[in-house]
Amino acid sequence: ETGVTQTPRHLVMGMTNKKSLKCEQHLGHNAMYWYKQSAKKPLELMFVYSLEERVENNSVPSRFSPECPNSSHLFLHLHTLQPEDSALYLCASSQDVTGVTSPLHFGNGTRLTVT
Amino acid sequence: AQSVAQPEDQVNVAEGNPLTVKCTYSVSGNPYLFWYVQYPNRGLQFLLKYITGDNLVKGSYGFEAEFNKSQTSFHLKKPSALVSDSALYFCAVRDNYGQNFVFGPGTRLSVLP
Nearest residue of B to residue A107 by CA position? Predict the structure, then answer.
């Protein structure tokens, strides 16, 4: 049990579909993150939320739309994706954004395949 | 700008032998260094961190890491490798200006029986 739960674990979607990834953390943390992990590429930070407010958006295409309704839940809404968006999407949380000594706690990820 | 290098894509070691996974970093301020491990179809798990103090830090599953300021390195070590240690290992750094984590590209460790 990681303390950070992601659903679904696997998702196959067509380029015209709309789907959402869900993340929930049970650690009482104030910061949540979306990362993209592609084969043979470094981990890419996509979005950062601190107390439900987006604090960073790393030039992510608008076909990815995050939502953070409260400090325990984070969503990533997907629409009109491209095959190159196929990857493992990881959610993470930390005590807060500015606490530099706090490690990230990751969920097990959603393996997304775009056909 | 912060950066992390893991010079080896792959490390192979025989079970029972000591292992080292290398990491070097570059930051503007004081470094805060982390190691994570990723098993197949799982997220990254935190292993250990260096914040300040003793240069040798101990973490989960018998792993330890040595901080070397002059060489800007933070190598991960274990005295006796297990087959179950086979996984992908990531080094990460933050600085005291509160910038986000920067991860290295990962090193795949294979422990051979």
Answer: B43
